Amino acid sequence: RITVLYTAEGKINMFVYDIITRIKQFKLDLTQYFDLVQDISYINNSNTLLITAVKNGHTDIFTFDFQKEKLLQITDDVYDDRDASFAAFPNKNGILFASNRPTPYAKGGDTSLPSNNHYNVFLITNFGDKPELNQITQLSKLKYGNARSPMQYNESHFTFVSDKNGVGNRYSGF
């Protein structure tokens, strides 16, 4: 499957193209859900998308189940959550993402001031129909530069790109 995301006439449109059957499936207008989609990828199956998008001025993480046509908001705060990717480590599955939140426990409201924090890597687990049960773990704490584009490297490591020395380099963590 290939997911195609495009804008036309001011609307955010998406369809899934099945390479084997050569059929366009799941033609959707995402404008009702998002102001802007920054990134999409598949989770561990071909029926669920992991989406980084802007909704009501906030950059958050969402999943979309094609079969149920159900959108689920994973993060919902004032911090910028970007570069989401699914990760399956031993004893822990979740979503790796970069965020400018100061700590994993930071709560933000509509009256919060914009964050000047560096982007670091976080993992959110236990996502599901009850977002209040989500657990966020901070995996990096950079004093300089930003950590972006986290992804699983192997069964026990992840990687991210950081510009802490002025040049974008890929680092690994576990």
Describe the structure.
With 174 residues, this protein is mostly beta strands. 0% of the residues lie in helices and 53% in strands. The protein has strands spanning 2-8, 11-18, 23-29, 36-42, 48-55, 58-65, 70-73, 81-89, 92-99, 120-125, 135-138, 147-152, 158-162, 169-173. Strands 4-5-6-7 form a four-stranded antiparallel sheet, with no helix packed on it. Strand 4 (36-42) and strand 5 form a beta hairpin. The chain is globular and about 45 Å long. The two termini are 31 Å apart. The model has no long low-confidence stretch (mean pLDDT 88).
Low-confidence stretches: none
- Would you list the SSEs in sequence order as H and E? EEEEEEEEEEEEEE
Largest beta sheet: strand ordering: 4-5-6-7
Strand percentage lies at over 45%
Radius of gyration: 17 Å
How does the SSE layout of this entry go?
Layout: E1 2-8, E2 11-18, E3 23-29, E4 36-42, E5 48-55, E6 58-65, E7 70-73, E8 81-89, E9 92-99, E10 120-125, E11 135-138, E12 147-152, E13 158-162, E14 169-173
Antiparallel strand pairs: 1-2, 2-3, 4-5, 5-6, 6-7, 8-9, 9-10, 10-11, 12-13, 13-14
Task: Write a brief caption for the model.
This protein is mainly β and 174 residues long.
Keywords:
14 strands; 174 residues; four-stranded antiparallel sheet; mainly beta
